[in-house]
Amino acid sequence: MTEKKYVLAIDQGTTSSRSILFNHAGEIVAKDQREHEQIFPRAGWVEHNPVEIWDRVRETVAQVFAQAGTNRHSVAAVGITNQRETTVVWDKHTGEPVYNAIVWQDTRTKEICERLGAEHGPERYKERVGLPLATYFAAPKAAWILENIEGARERAERGDLLFGTMDTWLLWNLTGGIDGGVHVTDVTNASRTLLMDLRTLRWDEEIAAELGIPMSMLPEIKSSSEIYGYGRQHGLLPSTPIAGILGDQHAATFGQACFEVGAAKNTYGTGNFMLLNTGTEPVFSEHGLLTTVCYKIGDAPAVYALEGSIAVSGSLIQWLRDNLGMISSAPEIEALATSVESNGGAYFVPAFSGLFAPYWRSDARGVLVGLTRFVNKAHIARAAEESIAFQSREVVDAMIADSGQTLTELKVDGGAVRDEFLMQFQADILGVDVVRPKVAETTALGAAYAAGIAVGFWDGEQDVIDNWAEDARWSPRMDEQERARTYRLWKKAVTRTFDWVDEDVV
User: Fold this and answer.
1) Which tens digit of pLDDT belongs to each residue from 463-493?
2) Whole-angstrom Cα distance, residue 20 to residue 57?
3) Which residue from 84, 92, 208, 465 has the highest number of Cβ atoms inside 10 Å of its Cβ?
C-alpha cells in the first residue's frame, strides 16, 4: 500500500482556483492555479460560472499530481477552502446551477436587505448571527435567485434545489454529485450566510422563513475538521477522504497558527480580511466588525473571531491594470509607487462595492481626492497602495475598541505580502511590526491542516505551531506626527464616498 505522504488543499478563490500538495512539514510540493471568468452583467453585479469553476478545480488537481509524479494513493486527505459568501443554487437531480454563482462583491441584493431591515434596521439579526444585513452575505443572494429566476421558487419548495457556498458545491461534486453527493458546509462558511445562530451552530428557521428560503435547500452544518465523505469511485480522487473545510479567511487564520486569544492575521487578496481570535465565546462588535466562527476542530468547542472585511484591495490594483491600463502587470505597481516620495496629496478610497468594515455603507462609491496639477500616475499608484494599508488600520482600531486587546504585531499573508513598499507602509501606519511567514500560501495550508488533523496525519494545533516560521518582518519607521496627519486626511477622504448612490443611480 502506498505511503500517505501528502495532504491536498483545494483553494477556490474569487479570481482563480488552486490545488496545492503539502508534505508533513507544511511545505509546498506542487501547485497549480487556473483563472475563471469574471462576469459583470450590470454595474454592481458580479457573477461566476460554477460549472467552469468545477472544471478548473479538476484541471488543477490533475496538474498537481502530474507535477509531483504521484497520485491520489499518496494523499491522506483533501481540504477545501473557498471564497466564502459566493452563492450557488443548483438542481439536485441534474447537477445544473439554476443561475450563475452570485459573488460576495455583488450589490444587487441591496433592496432585499433594506426590505428585511425596514422596521428593525440593518442589525435586525446581528445578535443571533453576528452580521448586519448587507449585500455581502450569502442568504440574500439565494433569496434573490428564488425571487427572480423563473420557476426557481416552485422547484425549491418541491425540494428539488440545493443551496451552498463554493465549498458545498465542490464537496457535492467531489463526492458523487447527483449520484450520492454529500450536501454539507462547515461552521465557518455557515456563519457567513446570515442564517446560522452563532451560539447553537444551527440554521435559524425563523430567519430562513423571513428570507423565503426553504430549509430543504440548506446543507448540513459540520465542524471544520472531520471526514465529510470520500471522492467518488468513478471520478476525481476516488476513495480519498474529504476531511477539512474552512472559509478562506478562517483557513488563513488557522494556517497562521493564530490559536491564542488576541492573535490576529491580515490577508491581502481581492479584498483585505483581518481576523482576531476571541476564544470560545463570541464577542459582538460595537464598532462595525463582524462576529464569526474562526474554526471548529471535530468535537472541540468552536473558536470565534472578530473580522474586519474590506471589499477592495488587490482588486484595485487589477482595476488600475485592466480598466485604466496604468500598469501591464500587478507587480509593476510597487515600482511605480516608489518612483515618487509621497502620494502628492492624493487619497484613493476604492469603495467600488460600497464600504465594508467598519462603515457598512452600500451607498458609498469610490473617490480619488486631493488632486492638483502636480499629481501624476505614480502618485495615484502610491495612493492606491496606501489605501490598502489605511483600510486595514481602520479595522485594527475597531478591533482594539471591541476586544480590549492591544495589537503587538500583525501576521500577514496573501498575494500582496511580497510588495515591500506596502508592507512597510502597513507597519508605519499601524505603529506595530508586520510579520510574513515562510509559507505565504496560508489559506490553502490552513485547509490542509484541518483535513490532515481529521485523519491523524497531523496531531493537532501544536503541529501547526511547530511548522510555522517567520520569513520577514517590517518595523515602523514613520514618526507619530506624520502617521496622525496622513491618517486624518485618509479619514476625511472616506467621508467623501458617502451618500453617492441615490435611488436613480446604479
Assistant:
1) 888 888 899 999 999 999 999 999 999 999 9
2) 11
3) 84
**pLDDT (0 to 100) of residue 362:** 82
Contact 108, 44 (CB under 8 A): yes
Cell numbers at 446, concatenated = 490552513
Distance in angstroms (rounded) separating the CA atoms of residues 38 and 15: 7
In the numeric block, which cell numbers belong to residue 304? Answer: 470565534
pLDDT tens for residues 170-188? 999 999 999 999 999 999 9
Q: Phi/psi of residue 254, each to 5°? A: -65, -45
Q: Cα separation of 196 and 190, whole Å?
A: 6
Cell of 101: 454563482
Q: What is the pLDDT of residues 309-341, one digit of tens each?
A: 888 888 899 899 999 999 888 888 999 999 999
Cα–Cα distance list, 283 to 126, 219, 298, 371, 403 (Å): 11, 26, 22, 41, 8
Cross-strand pairs, 196 = 203
Residue type, 255: G
Burial of 344 (0-12, 13-18, 19+ CB in 10 A): middle
How many other CB atoms sit within 10 Å of the CB of residue 217?
22
Question: What span, in angstroms and rounded, lies between the C-alpha atoms of 8 and 27?
Answer: 12
End-to-end CA distance of the chain: 60
Q: Give the span between the Cα atoms of 16 and 26, in whole angstroms.
A: 22
